[in-house]
């Protein structure tokens, strides 16, 4: 039986394997992503309006942002770090697209 964290790990691994490394900027992005990649564990995220939901952490904080997997939407999401934990800021999509939007 595949767990949710196994599913997220497989999605991220597949995306990293497909991403071209043609330019220096691509290599830098991939290096940064790999450096911040977290063990995929559940984390509570605050959604717009104050509701909370359980997501899967994909990257550790870079000091301002954390990236998570939104299970209900089946999308990656960029969250701003706050005193109360990560807050979904509405940047959703593929892992590298979200990560590179910072």
UniProtKB/TrEMBL annotation:
Superkingdom, taxonomy of origin: Bacteria
Taxonomic lineage from the root: Bacteria, Pseudomonadati, Pseudomonadota, Alphaproteobacteria, Rhodobacterales
The protein's name: Uncharacterized protein
